[in-house]
Design a protein that fits this description.
mainly alpha, rod-shaped, about 95% helix
Length: about 50
């Protein structure tokens, strides 16, 4: 019984870690996308002013 509980706990922990990693990855992706968008906007602005 105790072993089972421990295993469950471990599993839960792993899941949480995975979720956190996924979230971090998503955030990084979003940041990259935002940066790219900003760069594109800047380039567009420069092109327009020329």
């Amino acid at each position: 019984m105790l072993l089972m509980l421990l295993l469950l706990l471990l599993l839960l922990l792993m899941m949480m870690m995975m979720m956190m990693m996924m979230m971090m990855m998503m955030m990084m992706m979003m940041m990259m996308m935002m940066m790219m968008m900003m760069m594109m906007m800047m380039v567009m602005m420069v092109m327009m002013t020329w």
